[in-house]
Amino acid sequence: MSLESNRTLGGVGAILLAIPFLNLIGIILVLIAMKGMAEYYNDDDIFKNALYGFIFGIVGVVALVVVIFMAIVGLAVVSPVVTPFAGLGLLIIAFVCMYIFSLIAAIFYKNSLNILSEKSGEHMFDTAGLILLIGAIIPLIGEVLKFIAWILVAVGFFGIKTSTQMPAPTPAVSTSEEKKFCQHCGAQLQVNAAFCQKCGKKIG
Ligand SMILES: [Zn+2]
User: So what's the pLDDT on residue 166?
Assistant: First the structure.
């Protein structure tokens, strides 16, 4: 895929990542874009770090889901007197696990974004990585920061300069339409003119 496709994919993915329930689709698009970026900038660490971030993020969520499931099943099966406390304990452990995993995930995402920032020259990725990490450190309120961080990642992706976007160099005047100027008065001459129309002098 071209740099431009990956740029668009990453930008759209990062926006989806900021939206609840669409974030899984978003992260997959971002990962594909990061793979492309890693190839384009010839640095595998861009993709590897993003992939590790993804894995840790998923593990954290899966752990939470499993524990909640266990707590519900436990509540239904075992004695209803003991389980609410056991369930609450499990839930706290699950949230702590998810917090730690999402923190590790953020560190990996930040690494990936830092390398991408350095390679692409788009420093919005640096800012986004930092905000993402701070968001992961602060529970609950941090979710807002994470949202902002992914929007900034999108801004970063769309800000990457691709060669096709660079202003085309003004085309050199083609030889057939080459303009001539009189060497005596500077007036523009007609093509193949032998004498200057303005000053009448012979053209050298
Ligand atoms: Zn002239």
Answer: 47
User: What's the 198 CA to ligand 1 centre distance in angstroms?
Assistant: 5
Distance 189 CA to ligand 1 centre (A): 8
* Ranges of the chain with pLDDT below 50: 164-168, 173
The residue with tokens 């560190």 is 107
Give the pLDDT of residue 171: 52
Q: State how far the alpha carbon of 38 is from the alpha carbons of 32, 42, 97, 147, in Å.
A: 10, 5, 30, 24
Which ranges of 78-182 would DSSP assign to H, the alpha helix?
A: 83-120, 124-137, 142-159
174 Cα to the center of ligand 1, angstroms: 23
The pLDDT of residue 117 is 96
Of 7, 9, 27, which is closest to residue 19 (Cα–Cα)? Answer: 27
| Ligand 1 centre distance from Cα of residue 178 (Å) | 17
Q: Ligand 1 centre and the CA of 70: distance in Å?
A: 95
